[in-house]
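Our preliminary data section would be incomplete without showing what the modeling component actually yields. Below, a chain of 106 amino acids is followed by its predicted structure, encoded as tokens that our downstream tools consume directly.
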Amino acid sequence: FPVTISTAEKNHNILLTSEIPNIFTPNGDGKNDLFSIPVAVNVVHTTKVFSQKGELIAEFTQASSGWDGTKTGGTEVANGTYFYVTFVSDQVGNQKQIKGTINLVR
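Predicted structure:
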């Protein structure tokens, strides 16, 4: 699933290895316990997760494993819809912002 970054010179494609999920279930069963952004290995990304009130809940990069449904510090958040903003960069530094929602169901 390519995401296109347009610059004055040309378009650059960033490869998502699959669609970004819209739901995850961090209940400890080992299935679908993390929300992560499926990008190719050569793509740099940072993702921030926000509550419906705009509070920053979590932040992760491709170097970490994703969001486990807790606030920074380990407190579990409630079931519900959260917003994410992902900043992806290609090998030459061109950036694109991807926004969406993720539903957390325990």
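Strands lie at 2-6, 11-15, 23-24, 44-50, 56-61, 80-89, 95-104. Residues 4-10 have pLDDT under 50 and may be disordered. Preliminary results of this kind motivate Aim 1 of the renewal.
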